[in-house]
Each structure stands twice: as structure tokens, then as C-alpha cells.
UniProtKB/TrEMBL annotation:
Pfam family membership, one: HpcH_HpaI
Protein's UniProt keywords contain Lyase: yes
Keywords recorded for this protein, A-Z: Lyase, Metal-binding
Protein name, UniProt field: HpcH/HpaI aldolase/citrate lyase domain-containing protein
GO cellular component, one term: cytoplasm
Ranges where the HpcH/HpaI aldolase/citrate lyase domain occurs: 35-242
InterPro entries linked: Aldolase/citrate-lyase_domain (IPR005000), HpcH-HpaI_aldolase (IPR050251), Pyrv/PenolPyrv_kinase-like_dom (IPR015813), Pyrv_kinase-like_dom_sf (IPR040442)
GO molecular function: aldehyde-lyase activity; metal ion binding
Length: 291
């Protein structure tokens, strides 16, 4: 992601272009971007994930109790710790959430909008992320502007236009209505990618409860195929969380361009469970040798 950095680390990297390039084999750029979720809302977690080589660190302000000041710290920790090599992305509760404004002003390179069901809702989400220069209604925040530091821009441009060009709007598809409207949502100007919200979609479709690693319901597999076809028709990248998938379902991952392959929370749980199991096994072996 280093090649997509803005002139200032306080400005958003060009995630929109990075996602676009995944759909163009002639670009010579990677066809997949790798991301991870911050669900433990502390700068130690954000700083650690930011230096591990991920393309994106996704800060989950939808399902994690994050207040505005901490959200700003988390976003800027990712940008500054990685020196712009890892892009902070924020999932906000909605287009109406006040956290959206703080995420944008802090320099988030992408915004994930959950529970978008219609093209009208998608258009509103785009508008909230764009200034009037790009037909949006984003408000200018003078308190975040430091002359010559956070407002730098290429000749003939401005920091507002840099933000409008660089910030990726990612729309989650996680209901039958959203799936039915996926073509129209993908066609909304300014929508840069679609994200499969498999968990909520599974519930909305009344699929049986599923544990991690269980075979996927045929309804979800059909939804995935429909989304992949939408992606191909509109040349819009697809994002998905991969660490909850069954092994058999992973055959279609090649058709998704932003892969969220882990989270701090899931890795914490897995690591502690594995360490505990190994120590119990070690003690059992030691006891066996003594006997």
C-alpha cells in the first residue's frame, strides 16, 4: 500500500485506487488485499496489527464500544505506526452515526457501511463521505487542518479533493433485500466495493445456526455466486471476512479482492486456547513419563 499513500500521513491513502487495481490484471498490482479487524479497541492492538504487513486494518465501531476520541486515536495509530503502509478502515454503525465524521477527519482510507439495502441508502453513504466538490455533503473540519502538514495536496488539487478521490466507500450486503438490489447498489457512483455480510445475511435468510468451520448453507453459496456476478458486471471489488469460513467454501475466495483474514479478538481466543491445550498435553506427557 506504500504506493497509494497520500502526501501526509494524516490524510487518507488511496484505498479506492488500490481496490480498483485489484480488478485490472494489467495494472501489475496485487489482485488481493489482506486485512484484519480491530475488535479490542486499544492503541496497543492497533499499533501491533499496523506493523505486521496487512494492507488494511479495519476498526469495528459497529460492534465494538468505541467513543469518538478513541476512534481517532486508533485510526491515526494505524497510519502513523505503519508509516502509511497499512490503511485504516472504519466500519461505522450507520451513515447517520456521528462516528463517521470523526473517522473521516482522522484520515480513514475507507468506510464500511453496514445494513445498506437500497441504492438510495448507498447514495446517502457516498454523499456523507464526499465534499460538495464531488456532489457530497461532508462538512469541513477546520480543527484538523494544520497548514503545510494536513492540508497538503498536489498542484492543482486540494486536501478536500484528495479525500474525495482516495476514500473508499464499501457497502455491506447482508439482507435478502440488499442482495436483490445488489446490481443497483453497485451502480451507484462513488461505491468502491461491496462486502458480503455473511453472518447477518445467514440470519436474515433464516438459515440454521452455524459454528465456525461448519459447511455453508446452500442459500449463502447462492448469494455468493450472485454477488460475484454483480462484481463482474460492474467491475466492483468484493470484500469478505474469511476466518469464519469452512474449508470447502474457500474455493470462491479468488473472486473476492479484500480478504479480512483475522481479528485481534479471534486470534486472542485461538492463541490462548491452543496454548492452554498444549500445556495440558505437555503435563499429561510428563506425568506419563514419571509413571
Amino acid at each position: 500500500m506504500e504506493d497509494y499513500r497520500a502526501a501526509s500521513l494524516f490524510q487518507p491513502s488511496n484505498l479506492a485506487k488500490a481496490l480498483e487495481d485489484t480488478m485490472d490484471p494489467s495494472s501489475g498490482r496485487p489482485t488481493h488485499l489482506m486485512g484484519t479487524f480491530v475488535s479490542v479497541p486499544h492503541t496497543i492492538s492497533a499499533r501491533t496489527l499496523a506493523v505486521l504487513g496487512y494492507d488494511c486494518v479495519l476498526i469495528d465501531a459497529q460492534h465494538t464500544p468505541i467513543e469518538a476520541e478513541n476512534l481517532v486515536r486508533l485510526i491515526q495509530t494505524v497510519s502513523l505506526s505503519s508509516q502509511g503502509r497499512t490503511v485504516p478502515v472504519c466500519r461505522v454503525p450507520s451513515a447517520q452515526s456521528d462516528l463517521l465524521t470523526y473517522a473521516l477527519d482522522a484520515g480513514a482510507g475507507g468506510i464500511i457501511f453496514p445494513h445498506i439495502d437500497t441504492p438510495e441508502q448507498a447514495a446517502e453513504a457516498v454523499s456523507k463521505c464526499r465534499y460538495a466538490y464531488s456532489d457530497g455533503d461532508r462538512s469541513l473540519a477546520p480543527a484538523v487542518l494544520v497548514p503545510g502538514v494536513t492540508d497538503v495536496a498536489p498542484p492543482g488539487s486540494s486536501h478536500e479533493r484528495v479525500a474525495d478521490k482516495n476514500i473508499a466507500v464499501i457497502i455491506q450486503i447482508e439482507s435478502p433485500l440488499a442482495l436483490a438490489n445488489a446490481d443497483a447498489i453497485a451502480a451507484v457512483p462513488g461505491v468502491n466495493a461491496l462486502m458480503l455480510g455473511a453472518g447477518d445475511l445467514r440470519v436474515a435468510m433464516r438459515c440454521p445456526p452455524r459454528q465456525v468451520g461448519d459447511p455453508e448453507d446452500p442459500k449463502i453459496l447462492d448469494a455468493i455466486e450472485r454477488l460475484v456476478n454483480v462484481s463482474r458486471r460492474h467491475q466492483k471489488p468484493l470484500a469478505v471476512v474469511t476466518f469464519k469460513l469452512s474449508e470447502k467454501a474457500k474455493i470462491w475466495l479468488k473472486d473476492f479482492q479484500l480478504l479480512v483474514i483475522s481479528s485481534d479478538y479471534s486470534s486472542l481466543v485461538k492463541g490462548h486456547k491452543d496454548d492452554l491445550a498444549r500445556m495440558r498435553q505437555t503435563l499429561a506427557e510428563v506425568q506419563g513419563l514419571k509413571n
